[in-house]
Write a structure and sequence with these properties.
The complex is a heterodimer. In chain A, helix 7 runs parallel beside helix 9. Chain A has one domain: Tetratricopeptide repeat domain (Serine Threonine Protein Phosphatase 5, Tetratricopeptide repeat). Chain A contains 11 helices and no strands. The chains are: A mainly alpha, B mainly alpha. At the A-B interface, helix 1 and helix 8 of A face helix 2, helix 3, helix 5, helix 6 and helix 7 of B.
């Protein structure tokens, strides 16, 4: 049965590219997180708000870079001041890391949802420096519970780094940082946000809807009803459109509209759904 | 097929022992990744698909009753999950481009670079096959399944499976002999 052209599967190396022990452990750890903790996970509201703020910062960074690419002459002036960081509910006293799940009270979650679904905030592009240090997201990081950097702060730092890289147009490096967040802080709200951000990069900048779809699915696996749900559903619809998967696109658009989104995407989704017609 | 006593470590993983599950996954991971790589074009998706396969293995672990080796059972789950998750759009995008320069990988692939390179050459040839032929070729030659077994696994009529296997191997040999 064995053929010299096709070596049988055994304990030898290849054909997959080798992984370092650390990478293997990270992959296993992610899988365990998804298996043991993912179902209907709900994150602490303050962690969600913090992470969503980073997502918006990422969106701003993307837009800044995009505008910078298209309108270099605009770099020398301030377009619009950025909005203030959203207020955060204080973290519960017992919470020491953002991986601690807590029931999400309706009001903060709703505000986070609105935040995620609102149009992108205006962007400030600083004079001759297309990569502004984005301090605003740090302001929304909850106080450290003890000495030394907490996982939240470390995750926040990585997300901030990713956003800064994105603002510089270093899309691939930015994506690596987002993925690093998902590896180093699996199962957290930071990982949730990082998956969504990475998906957006893969879809819009790397033109890779297949990998973008996987990243969106990873985010959904972490939280199927999270604050970035509209972003995910709409993104998935775009992925499936690019992949020519009409039924999946229709389902994603329907799920997106079921969340009663506002803004221009709603009209686009309704129009596209009408174009697709009934199943 | 008669059941054999299930390895206590597997039993612990079946009961939800995270540490045991982790150890099991670490043990299965290299083969899962290699099998996924045999089944998909290019390297880009191997880790995403391997993670999906590992997740499916964990989710299905409670159904494992010791009929046959765990690795064989895990291989079947990996094949099903990979084929299910595979997206048609990838087609040629990742195919040959992702093979990339192999030299930089050799140090990491040691201690057996010859075997590693032989397997990379094998998947490079496999990239030339359509997925339906590739699946039967991999299940037959890499996993050692008989034609009736692989036809059953892939939900194919026996004659179809046999025909795909023949066509696939013809193409592989032609590819091998091409200048």
């Amino acid at each position: 049965m064995s053929d010299p052209l096709l070596p049988p599967l055994d304990d030898g190396p290849g054909p997959a590219r080798p992984l370092s022990p650390a990478e293997s452990q990270a992959l296993v750890r992610r899988t365990l997180e998804l298996h043991f903790q993912a179902p209907r996970r709900r994150f602490a509201p303050w962690a969600i708000a913090s992470s969503v703020a980073f997502f918006l910062a990422a969106s701003s960074a993307t837009a800044a870079w995009w505008i910078g690419q298209r309108q270099p002459e605009a770099r020398a002036r301030t377009i619009t001041p950025p909005p203030p960081a959203p207020p955060l509910p204080p973290p519960p006293a017992s919470v020491t890391t953002e991986t601690t799940a807590a029931p999400a009270p309706a009001a903060p979650l709703e505000s986070a949802r609105q935040l995620a679904d609102s149009p992108e905030p205006p962007i400030e592009i600083e004079d001759s420096t297309p990569t502004p240090k984005r301090k605003a997201p740090r302001k929304v990081t909850p106080p450290r519970p003890g000495p030394g950097p907490s996982p939240t702060v470390e995750a926040a730092d990585l997300l901030a780094e990713a956003n800064a890289l994105l603002a510089k147009g270093e899309v691939r490096e930015a994506e690596r940082r987002y993925v690093a967040v998902t590896v180093r802080f699996p199962g957290t709200s930071s990982a949730y946000v990082a998956w969504v951000a990475a998906a957006g990069l893969r879809l819009e900048h790397q033109k890779d809807p297949s990998r973008a779809e996987r990243a969106y699915q990873q985010a959904l696996a972490l939280d199927g009803r999270g604050p970035l749900d509209p972003e995910i559903r709409y993104g998935l619809a775009e992925c499936y459109r690019a992949l020519g998967q009409v039924d999946a696109e229709r389902a994603a658009l329907t799920a997106f509209l079921a969340g009663r989104p506002s803004g221009p995407r709603r009209a686009r989704a309704e129009r596209r759904l009408a174009e697709l017609g009934a199943p | 097929m008669a059941s054999r006593p299930v390895d206590p470590r597997i039993q612990r993983a079946q009961r939800g022992d995270r540490e045991a599950a982790g150890a099991l996954l670490e043990e299965l991971l290299p083969k899962v990744r290699n099998l996924v790589r045999y089944l998909v074009r290019g390297d880009a998706e191997v880790d995403d698909l391997s993670q999906k396969a590992l997740l499916a293995i964990l989710q299905g672990l409670k159904s494992y009753r010791g009929e046959g080796e765990l690795v064989s059972w895990a291989n079947k789950i990996t094949v099903r999950e990979t084929i299910r998750s595979r997206k048609k759009d990838r087609a040629d995008r990742a195919a040959l481009s992702a093979i990339g320069p192999e030299l930089e990988l050799l140090s990491a692939a040691t201690p057996d670079p010859d075997r590693y390179l032989a397997r990379r050459a094998a998947v490079r040839r496999l990239e030339t096959l359509p997925e339906d032929q590739r699946d039967v070729v991999v299940l037959h030659h890499v996993l050692g399944m008989s034609v009736p077994e692989l036809a059953d696994e892939l939900g194919l009529p026996f004659d179809t499976a046999k025909s795909r296997l023949r066509l696939g191997m013809e193409k592989l040999r032609a590819e091998e002999e091409a200048p």
